[in-house]
Amino acid sequence: MGTDVRDRLGRPLRDLRISVTDRCNFRCPYCMPRELFGPDHAFLPRSELLSYDEITRVVAAFASLGVTKVRLTGGEPLLRRDLAVLVGLVAATPGVADIALTTNGSLLAAQADALRAAGLRRVTVSLDSLDPDVFQQMADTRISLQAVLDGITAAREVGLGPVKLNTVLRRGVNDDGLLDLVEYARESGHLLRVIEYMDVGSTNGWLPDQVVPAAEVLARVAAVHPLEPVGRASPGDVAETYRFLDGRGELGLITSVTKPFCTDCTRARLTAVGELYTCLFAASGHDLRAVLRGGADDEQLREAVSGRWRARDDRYSELRGRLPAGGPKAEMSFLGG
Ligand code: SF4
Questions:
Q1: Is the pLDDT at 1 greater than 60, yes or no?
Q2: Is 277 near ligand 1, meaning CB less than 6 Å away?
Q3: pLDDT (tens digit per residue) in 202-249
C-alpha cells in the first residue's frame, strides 16, 4: 500500500477512474445529447490524448499514494484501440489490486476474452432498459439491445461475471421497466445497481421531478421481492446493497441525490487529456499532461497529484440545492462518470 495521503475532509485516495476517450457510439441524452454531440462535434485528436505509457506513469503515481482500484471509462472505452494493452500495463503496476471497466457493452462480446487475459477483473455495463425501443430511446442509437446483452453474456463466459448492471432511472422514461431489469438480474445472477438520475454536466436538462428516489425504487422492488439491507461493500463504495430474502442475489442503489455519500468519497478522476478531477461535479481539473510532457520525473508527478488531493474539499452532492443553480460542471462523457 502507498503513502496514505488525505484530503481536507480526511478522505484517503483509493480509487482512480480513468477516461481513455471522449468518443462514444451511443448518445444517451443524460450524458451526450446528440444536439450537442452531433456529426460536426470535434472529438479530441489522438495527439491530445494521454498515451498508454503516460497513463501508466500516472497510475503508478496514484498507486504510490494509496490507490488500489483503477476503473477504465470513457466515453466508450472499448472504442480506444488495443485497450487490452493498457489493461496489461495497469495490471502490472505495483499497488494496483483491482482493475474494472465501465462500458455500454455494445463492443464487449468481441473484446471480453482479450481484456480478461490482460488482467481485467470486473466489468460494469450500462443497461437502462430491456425494452428494445426504450433502450434505443435512452441511448439514442441504432445499435441493438441484443448487442449489449451478448456483451454481458460474453463477460460472464470469460470469467468477468457477475457483471454489474448500471441503470439510470428517469421517471416517465424508463422507470416502467424497473421490475423487468430486476427479474433479468435475478435470473442471470448479475448485480443490478439503480442510479438516481443526476445533474451531471451542464447539458442534460436535469429536472428534480425526473428523479426516482432510491427509497421509492426499494419499495417498488420489495413489494414483489422482499429484501434486507447489507450496507456498502467498503466505505468508499458508491452503492448501498440489499439482499433478496429468497437468496436470488442482491440489488444496489446509488443515491447521489437523496442520500449523498461524499463523506466517504475516495475517488479521483483522470480525463483522456490528463486532467485530474476530484469530483464528478467539478467545473475544472488539474493539468497533469503538462506535468508529464513538461519533463517531470516520477517524484514531481507524485507531488503534483498529492498536492491536488490534499487541497480537495469537494462534496457537491451534499451541498446540492444550497449551491447557485446552473454553475459550470464538466461533462460526464468527458469525466467518465
Ligand atoms: S459529489 Fe463529488 S465528492 Fe460527492 S461523492 Fe460524488 S464525486 Fe465524491
A1: no
A2: no
A3: 888 898 999 999 999 999 999 999 999 998 888 779 999 999 999 999
Could you tell me the residue ranges of all domains in the chain?
Answer: 15-163+264-335
Report which ligand 1 atom has the smallest distance to the Cα of 314: 3
Alpha-carbon torsion angle 145, 151, 157, 162, nearest 10: -80
- Please report the pLDDT score of residue 76 as a whole number: 97
Strands (E) located in 201-319 = 227-231, 240-244, 250-254, 267-270, 275-277, 286-287
Which atom of ligand 1 lies at the shortest distance from residue 282's CA? 2
Q: To which CATH superfamily is domain 15-163+264-335 assigned? A: Aldolase class I (3.20.20.70)
* The pLDDT value given to residue 330: 87
Strands 267-270 and 275-277: antiparallel
> What are the grid coordinates assigned to 150, written together?
451478448
Q: What is the pTM of this model?
A: 0.95
Q: Is the CB of 320 under 6 A from ligand 1?
A: no
Whether ligand 1 lies within 6 angstroms of the CB of 316 is answered as yes
Rounded distance between C-alpha atoms, residue 227 and residue 212, angstroms? 19
- Of 178-192, 221-235, 285-299, the range with the lowest mean pLDDT is 221-235
